[in-house]
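Please, structure for the following, as tokens.
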Amino acid sequence: QVQLVESGGGLVQAGDSLRLSCAASGRTFSSYVMGWFRQASGKDREFVAGIMWDGRRTWYRDSVRGRFTISRDNVKNTVDLQMNSLNYEDTAVYYCARGPPGSGRYYYNAQEYDYWGQGTQVTVSS
């Protein structure tokens, strides 16, 4: 059984930075794509960032590219999301998720991710 636990959320002001972390259980963590998604109140869940199993390739939604950075540590079984220059539109519950194994194409669709954390709230005051 895979468990994902997010941490690092909080209340910040516009322009501030925040770093989210996701701790994963399971010996095969390093074999899988990992991703971050978010869901704002009253909106659908949306893709934020993804990272290949070896950390060599990353991809982002357009609105966060250049401000957010996803990274992973396959020894510690963690995947982080560094968020800079936060704005009000970044306010949401952020979820860590496990994607497919291997190093194929980029994955943006939530249906392609099979395990999810409980989420961590990020609130940006304007």
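The mean pLDDT is 95. The chain has no helices and eleven strands.
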